[in-house]
Amino acid sequence: MITNKNKYLAYFFNKFDYLIRFLYSQLSLNKLFFWKLYSSDFERLDSSFEKVHFFLKSHNFSFQDKTCLELGPGNSYVNAYNFLFNGSNKVVLVDKYPRHIKTKKQKAFFQKEKEFIKTKYNNKEIDFDKIVFISKDLSEVELNEEIDFVYSISVFEHIKNVEENIKKLSSILKKGGFLYHLIDMRDHYNFDNPFLFLKYSKKTWENYLTKKGVSYTNRIRYSEFKEIFEKNGFEIISEQITRYPMPNKIYKAFNKDDKNIDIGIWRVLMMKK
Ligand SMILES: C[S@@+](CC[C@H](N)C(=O)[O-])C[C@H]1O[C@@H](n2cnc3c(N)ncnc32)[C@H](O)[C@@H]1O
What we know:
Layout: H1 7-15, H2 17-26, H3 29-32, H4 42-58, E1 67-71, H5 78-85, E2 90-94, H6 104-120, E3 131-134, E4 147-153, H7 162-172, E5 173-184, H8 202-209, H9 222-231, E6 234-243, E7 263-272
Parallel strand pairs: 1-2, 1-4, 2-3, 4-5
Antiparallel strand pairs: 5-7, 6-7
Protein name: Methyltransferase type 11 domain-containing protein
Organism: Candidatus Falkowbacteria bacterium HGW-Falkowbacteria-1
Pfam families: Methyltransf_23 (PF13489)
């Protein structure tokens, strides 16, 4: 949201973050703000997909005839298109707070994204019959088929009931199926001060400074995420972690001795055992 480009402004935002977060979440300012803030960037997502695809191929994974599920696609279908054009036979998109194709801006975004993907794949037609969009929490979704591949980009840090979602993923993914997640565990308020939010107690954070909905952020740390995935039968095949400097003060409930507490971004490929 904010960067340290203007150091006086950054000082103000960091000093008064409680007040600003409180007003932002309690007054539902996210409805007023910012189409851009809550809109996906399909070119960035496409470029991430290409990197992940390259990586998946090196692990002998192919999309051919696979059923894929993307958790939290936001307002972008770009990953769904990429799965399909690489051979997938069905894509299930699950987003609890969908934001697509209602307003003029969203329609224009959808159109632009379609043109982008058509250019990428030499004007091939998109088979929309193979895409299913479900606007629910995954833990409440009844699926009649097993999934081969699950994908999510910057979603798990926004999910409130993480354990239920991971448990559900474990029940719908085929044995040997793959899962790729990018989890951004930084404070989304100011990416230049990535662990500022760890100074608050759970009660303060959950009740006053973040709000259920699109902008909700949990503060689950790497070690806890890892433990939940492993407990639910997932094995890490490969991971890339990015660490950031820790602030001096964090709330006592966070484990300062956890040597992985400073992980901000986790890119992980897992397999269902
Ligand atoms: C930061 S956005 C990321 C969107 C997209 N993946 C991207 O990178 O542009 C997080 C997304 O997670 C979705 N989300 C939040 N909680 C969810 C839940 N319990 N189940 C599914 N999606 C959820 C939000 O609606 C939102 O679309």
